[in-house]
Design a protein that fits this description.
Length: 150
């Protein structure tokens, strides 16, 4: 059995986490600029979606790596924030991203998941998938991150 299956479900300390995260997401001008959308948010997990347009593509036609990193970072941070106390926001300490293949598709989906939530540092992992017009999904990047209450 995978280790993730053995972990107990995360418990939030903020019953209003979904509302707080939606409000925080809406205040981020960079996310508005690229057209990112907040998807499903549950304790320890967050999904960020991005419809791919020319404004986020690089010179080869793929989604720019900086954009892939941005939505991965945001999905991981908000996954962590679901487990924080009410009124507490989040800051990224660091992240490492592995680009597995070009981000080529009509939609990107970043799914952040808490690995370990601590009082001062939370570790998350985010998988970023590219979705083609026919619905075919392929993982284009994996991001590991640490964040802190901020």
């Amino acid at each position: 059995m995978p280790a993730a299956a053995l972990r107990p479900a995360p418990i939030t300390r903020n019953p209003a986490y979904a509302t707080d995260i939606a409000a925080s997401f809406a205040r981020q001008g960079a996310l508005v600029t690229i057209g990112a959308e907040l998807g499903e948010v549950t304790p320890g997990r967050c999904v960020v979606r991005l419809i791919v347009t020319d404004r986020v593509r690089q010179h080869h036609g793929f989604v720019h790596g900086g954009i892939v990193g941005m939505i991965g970072d945001v999905a991981g941070c908000y996954a962590a924030m679901t487990l924080f106390d009410p009124g507490v926001e989040i800051l990224t300490l660091e992240y490492k991203i592995n680009f597995l293949r070009p981000a080529n598709g009509d939609l990107l989906i970043a799914t952040g998941q808490v690995v370990r939530s601590g009082r001062s540092v939370t570790v998350t992992t985010t998988e970023i998938e590219a979705v083609a017009t026919d619905g075919t999904r392929s993982v284009c990047a994996i991001l590991q991150q640490s964040s802190m209450p901020g």
